[in-house]
Design a protein that fits this description.
Blueprint (H helix, E strand, L loop, with lengths): L21 H14 L3 H14 L4 H13 L3 H8 L11 H14 L3 H14 L4 H71 L9
Length: 206
């Protein structure tokens, strides 16, 4: 994905949290590590904070952001999916933008487009979301074209396989016909030999 797709939403300390709360301190340490691009360390701090406040949408979001930067897109998407942005105070445009990025990374272009649409509904001025939407449309078309090419190739291969199978069946049938002819011919020869070498009964001498 292009450089323009790196925006990841990191929420600072909640106003409802006091600076001395363990979850708040761990969240702050996670943000510092994240800003320093130490994503594994940041993830560790966010997970630790989540252990104290497991229902915090902000911590789920920060955890997902760290996973995304670690290229664990499936895990990041699972974490994002646990958040309902309509019920919490999150930047909806940024949230759906990040969801779109995660779907894009997993080649789920339909869902990526839907997420970018929601991001643009929340903030129509977001140029990054607009560019990502256009890029995803292009990728989607490329994927459809590739899928069609693969389908055509598979159909062509199936046709060749079918023709080859028919040829093999025809050859097998010819072989069986020849074998049947030889067996029948052999039986006729055996009958003739029996006629030639059979014991002739001596007639009675009257």
């Amino acid at each position: 994905m292009e450089k323009k797709l790196i925006i990841i939403l990191i929420v600072p300390l909640l106003l409802a949290w006091h600076w001395f709360e363990p979850a708040a301190r761990k969240n702050l340490e996670g943000i510092k590590a994240y800003d320093a691009q130490k994503y594994e360390e940041a993830l560790k701090e966010f997970l630790s904070a989540k252990g104290i406040k497991p229902d915090s949408a902000e911590l789920k979001n920060n955890t997902a952001s760290s996973l995304y930067q670690m290229k664990k897109y499936k895990e990041a998407l699972e974490e994002f999916s646990r958040i309902d942005p309509e019920k919490v105070k999150l930047d909806k445009a940024g949230f759906y933008y990040n969801m779109g990025n995660s779907f894009f990374r997993l080649d789920q272009f339909d869902k990526a487009l839907d997420s970018y649409k929601k991001s643009l509904v929340a903030d129509s001025r977001d140029m990054d979301a607009k560019k990502n939407y256009e890029l995803t449309l292009k990728k989607q078309e490329e994927q459809k074209k590739k899928d069609q090419q693969d389908k055509d190739k598979q159909q062509e291969q199936d046709k060749k396989d079918q023709q080859q199978q028919q040829q093999q069946q025809q050859q097998q049938q010819k072989h069986e016909d020849v074998m049947q002819y030889l067996q029948q011919n052999e039986k006729e020869q055996l009958k003739n030999q029996k006629r030639q070498f059979g014991i002739v009964k001596k007639e009675k001498d009257w």
